[in-house]
Amino acid sequence: MINKITIVFFLLISCISKNNVKENVEEVFSIVIHGGAGTMSRNTMTEEIKKQYIDKLDEAVSAGYRILKNGGSSQEAVEKTIIIMEDSPLFNAGKGAVLNYEGNVELDASFMNGKSLNAGAISGSSSIKNPISAAISVMKNSPHVMLSGAGADEFANNQKLVLQPNSYFIINRRLNSLKSAKSKENPSNNLEQKIGTVGCVALDKYGNISAGTSTGGMTNKRWNRIGDVPIIGSGTYANNKTCGVSTTGWGEFFIRSVAAYDISALMEYKGLTVSEASKIVIHEKIAKLGGNGGVIALDVKGNVAMEMNTEGMYRAHMDSRGNKKIKIFRED
Amino acid sequence: MINKITIVFFLLISCISKNNVKENVEEVFSIVIHGGAGTMSRNTMTEEIKKQYIDKLDEAVSAGYRILKNGGSSQEAVEKTIIIMEDSPLFNAGKGAVLNYEGNVELDASFMNGKSLNAGAISGSSSIKNPISAAISVMKNSPHVMLSGAGADEFANNQKLVLQPNSYFIINRRLNSLKSAKSKENPSNNLEQKIGTVGCVALDKYGNISAGTSTGGMTNKRWNRIGDVPIIGSGTYANNKTCGVSTTGWGEFFIRSVAAYDISALMEYKGLTVSEASKIVIHEKIAKLGGNGGVIALDVKGNVAMEMNTEGMYRAHMDSRGNKKIKIFRED
User: Fold this and answer.
1) What's the rounded Cα separation, in Å, for the pair A285 and A269?
2) Is the predicted pLDDT of residue B2 greater than 90, yes or no?
3) Domains and CATH numbers, chain B
4) pLDDT bracket for residue A180 (50, 70, 90)
5) B327 — phi, psi (to 5°)?
């Protein structure tokens, strides 16, 4: 009788302590997104347009948050979140991407997995509905990291990804931007026409960071120009040892600065925080070269950085600690 | 009379001291090149073939050395030196480049100026005779850093660069390599078919570093694959603050490692020498991911690193101190 009571007692204690352990382990997860940095102004942005962006950012970041909360991987969260922004005509990625010199859409995207350091990218696609999924597919199902042009489209087709005619991506707003860019003497100096991109960095409950970025590039771009977005180290980088990064802005400067990897290197080699490293890259390195743009980054503890040297950056963040931020202007 | 003697005396002293100053200022310049890292073997390489490589490496490095010695810029030295290797069928760049899945040549190249941090690159060209010149032209004459495919060819044509039909680049040896790659179950695992590239890093008398890389990429590559060579930060990087770098090897691993910039970051942020940083990237970082290849690098004092984790790397070095090395195998 005493033995039975003792056993029941120990089982009870064991059960209680197990529950306590479970409660004490904080399941940290975190997600941050951007929808492009640029020269947006409070004076010219109507409340209606502002609401459209806020609502879409909310929808995208919440979708990724739910995946992470339910135990999904950071890779899945990044892919699904970016798809929502690619499918929205509000952003310069997927449907609604900017137009090149010939009046066509050419899409770039990249993805990196911070655990395996595997990566995939596509550039110059004229038909892949969701370039972020193609980038992940290149990583998973090809011996290569980066595919381009017609080859990227052919690969996506082989992978049974959804393709669309170029007309699917083209919206009136971008036709007008192209017209305006062509009417100017030096279109490359118009900041508004070379920025705007979507990106997402996520940390899942298992401590794995993923990062992805997707864009139509720069209005009026020529000669199959490739910007920073599909370049691992410039537009996208992820490493569980340090952080995940997605950039947006005048891509040429982010390539020359190797911006995304530089944030990781400043953390790994100089012991900076993700916030300090992001500030240095955006406000010192990129700015010194004359470049403009922004960056989102996330470290392995879920700390977030959202830095820009432009007037604003569409951005949002949610995490397991109950933080939720959705912002547009720099001073927000 | 005394006044005249005094003047002559002072003029003499002044002349002697000027000559002394001139003699004491060491005009440091340095150049290092590679012609690809790979699985070359002493047993299978005939003396005749070995001599061909040694002679061509000598011709290329000497041409760059003369430019630097005569006060030319590191940019000119890198361009002219790489052109000699692109024009030779011995290397996987320009004439003699490897063939893609469809049996065509697709050429990649990049260049970076360590003073301005300007850069240019082309990828997937099927007609540019000297891709390194096109990369420099993108840097100088376009608002972009990286152009690709037919757009890169169109840009080069606009710039009056020499174009050639694809047949100009194709040699029998590469046709056989493609046949052999296609006959194997998993061609991507054959190291010999994915490496071999040319590169050059130079430091001129004015303290400016330039770096450039040029390649045909990987035998049997598909879907307009882009390797590390045209990617600033992966295949090529230059910064007067730290070093210039050109890589060669299994490109996918150099992209995922952001290899070229990582050498610079290890020097800038951790205070490592160019030799220490190159060793870490090749023998620790690249090797840990399972990648193979090599790197050449040069710091602002003219110190050189030539590291590889393969059996050999065609490489040569000359500098203002009278050093001259031409090597093939790792233990050379």
Assistant:
1) 17
2) no
3) 27-329 (3.60.20.30)
4) confident
5) -135, 160
Sign of the Cα pseudo-torsion (A234, A176, A128, B135, in order): negative
Per-residue pLDDT tens over the stretch B60-89: 999 999 999 999 999 999 999 999 999 999
Within 284-303 of B, beta carbons closer than 8 Å to A belong to: 289
Least confident span in A107-121, B6-20, B151-165, B239-253: B6-20
CA angle B299, B300, B304 (to 5 degrees): 30
Give A-chain residues touching B261 at CB under 8 angstroms: 233, 258, 261-262, 265
Contact B126, B221 (CB under 8 A): no
ipTM of the complex: 0.90
Residue A302 has pLDDT above 50, yes or no: yes
> Residues A203, A209: contact at Cβ < 8 Å?
yes
What is the C-alpha to C-alpha distance for residues A90 and A45, in angstroms, rounded to an integer?
13
Count CA within 13 A, CB hemisphere, residue A324: 12
Flag if B117 and A289 touch (Cβ within 8 Å). Answer: yes
Q: Identify residue A85 by its one-letter amino acid code.
A: M
Predicted pLDDT at B56: 97
Contact A155, A193 (CB under 8 A): no
Whether residue A106 lies within 8 A of chain B, CB to CB, comes out as no
DSSP state letters, A90-132: TSSSSTT----TTS---EEEEEEETTT--EEEEEEESSBS-HH
Say what the pTM is.
Answer: 0.91
- Identify whether A197 is a catalytic site residue: yes
Banded pLDDT at A20 (limits 50, 70, 90): very low
> Tens of pLDDT along B165-222?
999 999 998 998 898 888 865 544 455 555 679 999 999 999 999 999 999 999 999 9
Which of A119, A224, A266 is opposite residue B148, by nearest beta carbon? A224
CA distance A268 to chain B (A): 9
3-class DSSP assignment, residue A264: helix
Contacts made by residues A158-167, CB under 8 angstroms, sequence distance 24+ = A159/A134, A161/A128, A161/A129, A161/A130, A161/A133, A161/A134, A161/A137, A162/A128, A162/A129, A162/A130, A163/A127, A163/A128, A163/A129, A164/A127, A164/A128, A164/A129, A165/A127, A166/A104, A166/A105, A166/A126, A166/A127
d(CA A130, CA A149): 15
Phi–psi pair at A170, nearest 5 degrees: -85, 125
Rounded distance between C-alpha atoms, residue B60 and residue B178, angstroms: 28
Q: Which two tokens stand for residue A91?
A: 């952003």
What pLDDT, on a 0 to 100 scale, did the predictor assign at position A193?
55
Backbone angles phi, psi at B46, to 5 degrees: -70, 160
Residue B17 has pLDDT above 70, yes or no: no
